[in-house]
Fold:
Amino acid sequence: MKNNGGQEPKERKLAMLRFIDRYRREHGMSPTVREIGEHLGLLSTSHCDYYLRKLEEEGLIERQPKRARTIRLTEAGLQAIGGVAQESAPVPAMDERVAVPFLGYIVASEPLPVEPLVGDETIEINPALLGTVDDGLFALRVRGHSMIDALIGDGDLVLFRHQERVENGEMAAVWIVDRQETTLKRIYWEGERVRLQPANPTMAPIYEEADNIRIQGKVVLVVRRLD
Structure:
């Protein structure tokens, strides 16, 4: 990893422009914020995003809000680094894939403490698999075997649509408030309590008071891991 942490702001912005331009030409797509930050030796993605916002304000780059890998240099940005537009490595049309935030792991067994559902990485998904595409999608990788009869196994990637309510029998990511834990289960509303039902005959359901859980998202797609 190249470390440019000691650069002055102007030099850092030029280095950022050069890296974005070179990455696009070599890979046919823009780098992620994390990749830019690692290349420049920045301490955090928020630090990197600060410089990207400055470049955007100065009219040197353009990007689509809430979409990964959409950063591109404007004509002014290309002039700033002495470059010209090239057609040798065109960026694929954005409708060919969807960038979905990858937020880490979720437990599909007895719930275990996990990090909050936040992250700055993305995965690329063919929109044909999703049906309806919106900004509320996020992805988590499964740990555990409690949903195996629902064809969700350890290591599978699950896409969720953020929503705070699901219907009986639907699968969802659930935050158990007093335990500070997240789990993946089928949801059944039973009066003032909720049954979190595994899809594994060897495991018992979990019962929680309705006001002790928060629905974080409904399962919309499972990408199976093939060993």
Observations:
- The first strand starts at residue 61 and ends at 62.
- The helical segments are 9-27, 33-40, 45-57, 75-80.
